[in-house]
Structures
1.
Amino acid sequence: MTWLVTGGAGYIGAHVVRAFRSDGIDVVVIDDLSSGKAEFVPDGVPFVRANLLDGTAVREALDGVDGVVHLAGFKYAGVSVERPLHTYTQNVTAMVSLLEAMAEKSVRNIVFSSSAGVYGTPRDEEVTEDTTPDPRSPYGESKLIGEWLLRDQAAATELHHTSLRYFNVVGSGDPTVYDASPYNLFPIVCNLLTQGKVPQIYGTDHPTPDGTSVKDYVHVADLARAHVAAARALESGKTLERVYNLGSGTGTSVREIMDAARRVTGIDFAPTEGPRRPGDPSRVVANGDLAARDLAWKNTYTVDEMFATAWEAWPKG
């Protein structure tokens, strides 16, 4: 059993690769290293450096493969507003290229890395898979289109698929792999503290217990294991739901993250406070009941453990 992980040199992809190998599943990685890091790919894992728009390279990478975990893409929602054509090319056109190659090679199983971004700014504080998608960026729209592509290709062929809608992915399951995104809260805090600077909280007047916004954070190692469970289920012929939310169902406030950072690092700091950013919801968490039922999904890390693993992996030199 061998699976191709697209984007396998990225933060999430590298964890998925490790989870598959730990479960005894061979892996091939394809990544153009536009945001991934070659050193994140473990020794001994076949690595194809190519973009999914390169159909020839994709077909070669699919040789002997039983399924695909598709994580590759342009993931920055805010920047996607400024670069919509680039976002659609990397997230939609490239996925079409991948699905064409899979059909040609008779690879019939795929787990798609979707996003909570498909929901936009939901009115309901608890998001279920029945919550109506309302993406507010080209990034979120491209992920929703990706789900549609899978639905339509499955109707036309023997494709077996599921899409995992992640919320805020944090932490590290390997001290050599870290989140380098300049837009995510954990790396922002780690970077500022490493430089001796103080993080900032945007918005302290939300209708939440401590006045700061509450979001759903999931540990990347738990997330990676969900991909393995989905792959095993598809490989066994089990019919999965078309989409699954991966979230804790509870949520953590920004101030609680700051408190955890202070406890974990031993750096005594008081975050500065600023006004809310436009569009920031006060509380959004995911109902993960379906994933718990079908994928044995659960968030197993406390907030301190989440930040501790992120801090351990963060490069401080």
2.
Amino acid sequence: MNVASESFAVDVRDLQVRRGTHRALVDVNVKVGRGSITGLLGPSGCGKTTLMRSIVGTQIVESGSVTVLGKPAGSADLRRRVGYVTQAPSVYLDLSVTENVSYFAALYGRRGSAVADTIAAVGLTDHARNAASALSGGQLGRLSLACSLVGDPELLVLDEPTVGLDPVLRAELWEHFRTLAARGTTLLVSSHVMDEADHCDELVLLRDGRLIAQLTPGELRDRTGEPSLENAFLRLIRTSTGA
């Protein structure tokens, strides 16, 4: 394995993904440092989910390479080392909150207080005995997040995890993400909400399946001269497309 690839949690090189006649990703190159929070940002349909699926190994790629924690994406060795939270909650509706999280904890070999601690981290302690079928959409999303968090993965890939959450819970989740990163967990978090970008160490900006830039929030502001990250992103897009 390339030593340079091993120094990053994620190393994507010249990635091409085609869906039918549509080119979903075009020559994408991204590197994600270990123990960092990287925001994957861009409008709906820009390729964020496709890139995440490529990183966790569930997407067929046309060409290029994706290395995750020093292994090819999708390797069996990565199954307990990578957590993935999809946009659609992936839980068992006939099980309670605790039973869902306990099931995934058992798969990862986690014991002790891990289940209760994880449920508390996503703000579901008061609903721990409720069936998943009785939860709201936002609560289901938090339960799906808990099922991935309980495994204590080295890399956590989150596809728009804060959609539908109230501002207080969103802030609490980002604080938890920062705590995880401080412990050494690498987080890749997609969003189409630019005000979440300031929570990230680095930003990966996509547009129409192409990488526009990878830089820090401060670098984005400096490059565009815009204090607002949303306006900075728009200016960067216009500059890159000549609009």
3.
Amino acid sequence: MTKLKRMVVYLVGFNILIAGISFLVTSTYGQSAWDGVYLAVSNIALLSVGMATFISAASILAVCYILTKDWHVFLSFVTSVVQSLLIDFYLFLVKTLIPSDSIPTRLFLFTTGIILMAIGISIYIQAKYPTNHVDCLMLSISKRFKLNLRKSKLIGDSSAILITLIIANRIPIGTFIVLVSLSPLVQFISDRISKPISNFINRTNYSRY
């Protein structure tokens, strides 16, 4: 039962994360730092966003291994492959269901996307299953340099913005809003849901007779 609950927590959080990414990308006002890298690679290499994500994942996980010297980081590749396959589907779904041809709609997508990403990350890391490549980088930086999640994510995202700037020569202003808001949100939500989720996963149900 515990394994089943962990899987439920993981899947719920992961799907919320992918939905958040899709909301941000569809808004066109900006996205998370690493999604900006994938979009830049996608545009230059004429690949889908999912394929660009897949290619980037291997490089990021290599960095995680360099930081931690732990081969277990490559378990995150499984999650990254699933994310790569799903992102194109979610993008299609969001663009189909929520036409983004007005400013209010785009603002809604942008704001909601940030919140969904923070909730998704905060939930699925509680399951302690392999993270995706970006969150693996965040946790690897945290472990290597003894930093909290907020500071670790800020370092990783700042690196991604620099890479995007080199590739695309421009950064949407909304990306900086995501950069400064997502990390505190992840830390804030994680601090408050870790205990309830842990209780949910480890609680034993007793039958009454």
